[in-house]
Amino acid sequence: MSGLFQQQIQPQIQSIKPYIPGKPVSELQRELGLSHITKLASNENPLGASERALAALEIALKDVGRYPDGNGYYLRSTLAVMNEVELNQVMIGNGSNELLELIGRVFAGPGDEIIFSQYGFAVYPITAQIVGATPVEVAAKDYGHDLTAMANAVTERTKIIYLANPNNPTGTCFGKEDWEAFIQSIPERVIVVLDEAYLEYVDQADYPNGLAYLNQYPNLVLSRTFSKAYGLASLRVGYMLASEEIISYVNRLRAPFNVNHFAQVAAVAALQDQQFVQQTVELNRQGMKQLVKALSEFNLTIIPSQGNFICVNFGARAAEINQGLLQQGVIVRPVANYGLVDFLRVSIGNQNENQHFVDALAKVL
Ligand SMILES: Cc1ncc(COP(=O)(O)O)c(C=O)c1O
Q1: What is the Å distance from ligand 1's center to 342 Cα?
Q2: Alpha helix (H) ranges present in the chain?
Q3: Chosen domain end from 273, 295, 329
Q4: Shortest-distance Cα residue to atom 6 of ligand 1
Q5: Which of 57, 206, 241, 261 is the most buried (most CB within 10 A)?
Q6: Tens digit of pLDDT for each residue in 274-323?
Q7: Which atom of ligand 1 lies at the shortest distance from residue 227's CA?
Q8: 99 CA → ligand 1 middle, Å
């Protein structure tokens, strides 16, 4: 690269390292010419999507020449009814990723601070950088959010706190007591974004579902996605629940037609197939058991996870093992970019995919 324009880009863009996605199957196929590839790198749904969502997509195909409903009326109203909130408390996005970033752009800028946890989802620090705010990373406790320390990190300049529960990539999950003490202690002027991308998978008894707190805390924003338990990752659709006021501000920045027609139609159908979500969660529970057992037989330690993925500690061999797994046709996710240099994150697949990973690991170890 010539670097001709380096001096012209906005100063806050200079230091941004782009988000690193999981390696696509087609890329490994191209590189190694392997036919049997298992991707456990992006926390996708091993069941694919609900038959009902697929059928709705097929019918919707004929409308490809038209713009989508820019207000996302049917999807938003379905979400409003299901979550017992007003229509104007719901906003949909091009993946929840878009919404997480829009919140940052609305509420923070140069001179402001955005708080997130060490090992918190990568999009939070990237958003802080994009908007030119100061990223404030708070040290993790047992790889999870230290909510007391995060509350103590609030200053007059704090505009947003991002939390993921469960968190990606660690899978850690905080409980009700810690959450309630936290949210009560945060000044009302500070926006608290509770990212519940993996909500459906949680089976922790004291899990604080953010919805129960939405009316009480006007500064609370919930972010959810159709990419995981609903199996629609490729369509890019997520949603945000918040006060009408917050939604109205974020809506000012939303690009017209940010969520395409197919995503809207499939998401409505997917919401109507909760049995598929239950199947997904059950498969995940079994797969988690299968992997935890196999990993303990290899004497490997893990971070206990409430999501559809698990972080495994390979010590100094993590990078080498990642390469070895790729050679065996298994794609997992290195998390060195999170500072977790000893770990690899493995998404929970179906039984055969999990077994492919275990067999490959046996060879590599
Ligand atoms: C914690 C968390 N939040 C948000 C997202 C973004 O998901 P999407 O943009 O597909 O909704 C992810 C994706 O991996 C995630 O792990």
Answers
A1: 23
A2: 25-32, 51-60, 73-83, 95-107, 123-131, 147-152, 176-185, 244-253, 261-271, 274-297, 318-327, 351-364
A3: 273
A4: 97
A5: 241
A6: 999 999 999 999 999 999 999 999 999 999 999 999 999 999 999 999 99
A7: 10
A8: 10
